[in-house]
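Bench notes, bay 3.
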Amino acid sequence: DFLHKQRDDLVESEKDVVKTIEEINNTAQAQFSETFEKIRGHFVRIFRTLFNPGDEADLKIEENADPLEAKIEIIAKPKGKRPSSLTQLSGGERTLTATALLFAIYLIKPAPFCILDEVDAPLDDANVQKFNKIIKKFSENSQFIIITHNKSTMTAVDVLYGVYMQEMGVSGLTPVDFRNFKEESVFEEMSAN
């Protein structure tokens, strides 16, 4: 009797665990599907901002599969191109597509700050301007730390920190706050008049 009671207890516990796992999976699938649709909408909108309003972009999830384990296809077709995969896009187009996806995910739960390291490196001058424009827009709600060698990006920022080597093995830091510079310039012009 004792062993039967113990066995029955184990069987009931197993049923409870299986039921809990099913509930967790159902909740996770529902939340993933809802979040995926939001990201998808943001991605299409941001992609068209970075490229052209009529360009085709989409995120598709593998059909008839568990959404938590399904493959996700990224579709990006700038005007005049019909690539069958992302590898057929130029380096700059791939970078802007990845940037659109990054910011689409970022919009779900924005962080107070974001670090981007050499994201603008593969971009040409026209695309760097698009990149800088979207960074300006997103920096209304978040602070961006951008590591770059691109002169256009450096001129678009509010504060620039130059890193240099004073002597072998010793780095120095030079900050330039363009916000104060612009305010002082306006003040000097007003004083002159």
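Next record in the batch:
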Amino acid sequence: AQRYDFKGSKASIDFDQKESKLVLVADDEFKLNALWEIVSTRLVRRNVPVKNLTRGPAQPAANTTVRQEVALQQGIPTDKARDIVRFIKDSKLKKVQAAIHGDQLRVTSASKDDLQEVMRLLREQDFGVALQFGNYRG
């Protein structure tokens, strides 16, 4: 409402928690892209990974507006998890096991150094999904 390029125009951002998606509505494609830039910069400022957001195609909506759905991905998809497990196994680290648990990936090892090495290797690679490391006992 405070931006000069949105004065007097219909622009809105709605969050559907059940389907975990954002719905962007604007007057035209240009304003829709500007709305996306606002959302993405705000998320980056709050340290939310933007890699897990998937923009859908822009669709015409009511009253000559344009609508776009942005899907929020939570967890790791199974195909990406398989790629990560394969990468860990190919890295030839001894006594490191990786297992897929639903939408999470669990990596176990007796050595903290091996776990830290796996974390370093995974941070260097780009799997198309933002990785978070949790439950690390240090």
